Amino acid sequence: MKMMDTIVVGAGIAGLTAARLLHAAGQRVVVLEARDRVGGRMWTDRTAGFSVDRGASWIHGLTGNPLTELVTALGMETREFTVGSFQAGGRPIADYDESRRLLDDDATQQWTGDVDTADALLLLTIAESGHDESYATAAERTLAATGWEPERAERIRMFYRHRTEEQCGAEAEQVAAHALDEDTIEGDEVIFPGGYDVLPHALAEGLDVRLGTTVTAITRSPARVRVDTEDESFDAAQVIVTVPLGVLKAGAIEFTPALPDTVAGPIARLGMGVFNKVFLQFPERFWQNDVYAIRQHGRAGVPWHSWYDVSVVSGEPMLLTFAGGAWGREIEQKTDEEVVSSVLDSLRKIYGDSVPDPVAHWITRWGIDPLAHGSYSYVAVGSSHDDHDAMAGPVDGVLHFAGEATCGHEPATVHGALHSGQRAAERILGSPISLAELTQGVHPSR
Hints:
CATH architecture of the largest domain: 3-Layer(bba) Sandwich
Mean pLDDT: 94
Distance between the termini: 35 Å
């Protein structure tokens, strides 16, 4: 049995942030990671000779974001791509109506204006909503108040449904009305031609990270904790658990004594969304130049509604589309060929025979990944943002939780995970820590 100051379970951004800050403070820290790589839900696939980010892709809002300085300090290459938060406009989007006709400038302006009008009303509706009301119910009350004709209202209704699918990985009926209260973006968004996983690889540099080490049980007392893996045990004064919420909800780690309701309650109430990616590489470009995205409005946008031009990352003609919520879970049971065929069918209804067969594709299946059981957390009906923070603990002064699911202000984001790791380290050390410590002696690993 190996004695440490702190054991960190999980080598995602939260775990690596906490471990690096504690290591810089002189602690003996070990990071136990079940996967054969660091990064967790940040995973860059380079098998094609360019970067395909199967997990996290964006910095959502550069202004006031700790990732901005960190990425700059690491010299990571970025490209501005400001529609990753599912915005109605703001950047060039090729919008198609229910008959698959391209909206002209006047129609596009009316569409984005309608979203602005509805959003302002929705904020008022949500402010009057309780935790047991769904986003779908709040949206219906909002649309009824507009008095719009059915087709005009339906277009906004579908936009709201797709918003919750992308932002929460869940259906609007499952998502709490208040779930997107913190969903504000300040400044531009960026993506990474060199791959986002440069960040976790840099943070892991110099740390004791044990890959392929699955934690099965954690036993605590007021003075110490024991962490059992499939092959050995570790002893420490403190432990930080950063595994995804889906893993905790699945009961993959046995806690002794059982977790108190102050932590177990939030784990049970919060939702774990499924949000999958489908990348298609084409032999040539068939869509418009200078657009960030292609969007199909209304009921015609089921099941595929938005395609993002990510050619800037690969240097090849590539589109990225998403499957969230129930559809995201459904495609996990389909073959790659079935998924690709379905996407192409939707694209060809817009662009006709100009859409060639792709030369390559990448499809994620986070919901059936046993080390994730989903993509990211969300505020489900009956839960609140307070549940995110309450889930962090500590428990008995020795057990801490971190990860995007424990960050009430910015859940489901990389910077939320970063903040949660910093908070856990600060609680263990009993003093504030500057995130500048993260880049001391670190260089990009790729």
